[in-house]
């Protein structure tokens, strides 16, 4: 069942997709949904909560790979799904760099990464560090791609580069998992 809050967040995401994050105001979202701005506050506390909800909506739309896949296949599938989401919602994915990311969908995504790292043999003390690195690479590449940092006429090249870079990140995961002295990579 679609709730009023779901409608509000979908409207906010649509505004972001159409006109950028600066267009996502409480008033604009209320108008789009057909309610008064004051009525909006029954569903979202403020603009910060609205932006958290937009990020949650984007992340909820990312297909999470199942545990039956090998760890590296899981991380690859997840990275490709995040890239697809970022290309569908080019401005909203950038919220991952400015929001705390403490929502149910984000936690599920992080759990998938932690599970893959565990299955790769990475010590538990390294999971958070490697998750941050993987997430920052994936989101950073996608945000750079959709924001125009990379030329748009090289789609095939970018897809190849993304996979090559991801393969290097997975190689780092293998290297951390292969350490036999239990040492950390350095200061945190």
Which properties best describe this structure?
188 residues, mainly alpha, Arc Repressor Mutant, subunit A, Tetracycline Repressor, domain 2, 2 domains, 0% strand, disordered C terminus
DSSP helical segment count: 8
Q: Could you list the spans in which at least 5 consecutive residues all have pLDDT below 50?
A: 184-188
Radius of gyration: 18 Å
- CATH architectural name of the largest domain: Orthogonal Bundle
CATH topology of the largest domain: Tetracycline Repressor, domain 2
Overall outline: globular
Briefly note the structural class of the backbone: mainly alpha
Order of helices and strands: HHHHHHHH
In helices, the fraction of residues equals 55-70%
CATH class of the largest domain: Mainly Alpha
Mean pLDDT score: 90
Polypeptide structure, described:
By secondary structure, this protein is mostly helical. It folds into two domains: 4-44, Arc Repressor Mutant, subunit A, CATH 1.10.10; 63-178, Tetracycline Repressor, domain 2 (Orthogonal Bundle). Helix content is 66%, strand content 0%. It has eight helices and no strands. The protein has helices at residues 4-19, 26-33, 37-40, 47-60, 71-88, 104-120, 124-147, 155-178. Helix 5 (71-88) packs parallel to helix 7 and helix 5 (71-88) packs antiparallel against helix 8. The protein is globular, with a radius of gyration of 18 Å. The termini are far apart. Residues 184-188 have low confidence and may be disordered.
Brief summary:
By secondary structure, the protein is an all-alpha fold. It has helices at 4-19, 26-33, 37-40, 47-60, 71-88, 104-120, 124-147, 155-178.
